[in-house]
Design a protein that fits this description.
By secondary structure, this protein is α/β, with parallel strands linked by helices. The protein has ten helices and eight strands. Helix 4 crosses helix 5 and helix 9 packs across helix 10.
Length: 265
Amino acid sequence: MSRMYIDSHCHINFPELAERLPAVLDRMRENQVTHALCVCVDMPDLPQVLALAESQPNIYASVGVHPDYEDTPEPDVDELVRLADHPKVIAIGETGLDYFRLHGDLEWQRQRFRTHIRAARATGKPLIIHTRAASEDTIRILREERGGVQDGAPGGVMHCFTESLEVAQAAMELGFYISFSGIVTFKSAKDLQAVARAVPLERMLIETDSPYLAPVPFRGKTNEPGFVRHVGEFIATLRGEPVELIARHTTENFFRLFKLEAGAA
């Protein structure tokens, strides 16, 4: 059985990777990483993200504003819907809540999240959700905004997941996938490893979040999409399952969630 991996979340438009993009793409091929989703974090970066996706048949894009970006242009629903009407844009986000890095009155962050959920419902494109130290509000707002698939929303993915199994279960009940990054390979990540053992393969994605969070054995170095293979291999060992099984399920899940034909370029 052949192995094929997909990096479901990366930032190859960031300078650390964009300045050596040909080598990054070569390393993807060397590691059987066939596709990657380059995720937008704020509006000024979107043209670069789109240009990169347009230049490579196996790179996709999203449109959204990260919850950590406070002083940045704030799109409304109509703008997000308009910008998402692009053949390479397959998701809304990354969006969500982060109470770890920012403090004080974060109502603006919650309103931004609601805007993105409404845009996802309007476009039918899945959400990419970042949640850190804010899981209760994240799930609450998703429910209030009818962001679950049972309410006709497109669902999405809880990216770079670091929360509890209970949070993962609540997200999966709403139709969301759980994506594991290089963090799961860290020796200190015992609780997260327990979550990775418990999440059904039918709900799992893998990612790098590059250029950050390089997996073992590259921890501390600049991360890149080609390294997502090590996340898949680690999870296979963790679960006692063939790595081909992890590769197949996470690849099929990516195509299913983002409504792409299997093997599409």
